[in-house]
Write a sequence for this structure.
């Protein structure tokens, strides 16, 4: 099991000496931000979570201050309104790379019953072939600061509409709207929880807090929450998996530039220029819960940049490589 790497949206240079220098600088900046965020933490809270008079659940306060930046609960008196698809697209065009209003409008997103901590809807789009053999769930934006993940999801909706396949696709381009819609987007949700550490993996109560404390050194960006499924966003996705029972989950992230896989069957060796690098599992992650525990294959795409999408041709090639692998390994042909 690997130790989480410091977050960066930079593409690492080919020079080893320069890469090491930049990596050391990133580590130093990360440590500095964490230490300056707040006073030393209480035993069961992330270091940067401030006290509040009215907690929302457990000992996690309603208003969290994370890494020196106020969380979505206190970010604005009038948070961005995405009550319908048109409003959602208007916000996405302002914030996402390589997304036009026309592209987003063609996605024809529909609000689900799910709501974020701040009450924002989570949108989805189903693309259903005449004779579907597989159900595939595509998740983007589980971390709000990975803008390219949501952008790629929207591009892939268009590919699904234009490319014949024996698949019922369900796209959820943005799982963490509260994190993305901040002035400075953040990985965590409005209660300071990393949604990708909040799924009910076996022994979560023992493993997730210990991993957060010992391996991430109480990194507030990776706080797993007070209990599994404590957040409305993860609870909805958990319920959706139980109801819909996908045959495959594709989870889009950034910025490490690799392809990861959890679960049964042989993994894809590459999607476009992303090559397989199975980097391990984490307590509470979607890959661990879906792939290892539920035995549903989970393909995790780590785009090389969180703030830029790949070129159009590269996004298309990734899509075609995914379809080819699904046909060979999952019977989608």
């Amino acid at each position: 099991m690997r130790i989480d790497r410091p977050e960066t949206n930079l593409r690492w240079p080919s020079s080893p000496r320069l890469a090491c220098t930049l990596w050391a600088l990133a580590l130093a900046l990360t440590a500095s931000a964490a230490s300056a965020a707040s006073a030393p933490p209480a035993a069961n809270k992330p270091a940067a979570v401030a006290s509040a008079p009215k907690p929302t659940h457990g000992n996690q306060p309603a208003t969290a201050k994370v890494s020196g930046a106020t969380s979505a609960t206190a970010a604005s008196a009038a948070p961005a309104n995405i009550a319908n698809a048109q409003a959602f697209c208007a916000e996405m065009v302002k914030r996402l790379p390589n997304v036009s209003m026309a592209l987003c409008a063609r996605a024809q997103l529909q609000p689900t019953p799910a709501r974020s901590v701040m009450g924002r809807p989570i949108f989805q789009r189903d693309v259903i072939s005449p004779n579907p053999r597989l159900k595939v769930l595509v998740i983007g934006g589980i971390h709000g600061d990975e803008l390219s993940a949501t952008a790629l999801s929207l591009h892939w909706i268009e590919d699904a509409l234009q490319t014949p396949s024996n698949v019922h696709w369900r796209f959820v381009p943005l799982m963490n709207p509260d994190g993305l819609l901040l002035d400075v987007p953040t990985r965590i949700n409005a209660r300071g929880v990393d949604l990708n550490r909040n799924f009910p993996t076996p022994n979560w109560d023992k493993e997730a807090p210990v991993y957060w404390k010992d391996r991430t050194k109480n990194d507030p960006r990776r706080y797993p929450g007070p209990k599994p499924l404590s957040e409305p966003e993860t609870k909805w996705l958990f319920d959706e998996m139980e109801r819909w029972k996908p045959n495959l989950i594709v989870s889009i992230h950034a910025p490490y530039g690799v392809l990861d896989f959890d679960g049964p069957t042989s993994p894809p060796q590459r999607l476009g220029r992303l090559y397989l690098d199975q980097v391990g599992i984490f307590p509470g992650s979607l890959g661990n819960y879906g792939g290892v525990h539920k035995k549903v294959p989970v393909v995790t795409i780590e785009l090389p940049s969180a703030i830029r999408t790949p070129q159009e041709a590269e996004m298309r090639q990734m899509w075609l490589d995914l379809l080819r692998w699904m046909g060979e390994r999952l019977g989608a042909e």
About this structure: The radius of gyration is 19 Å.
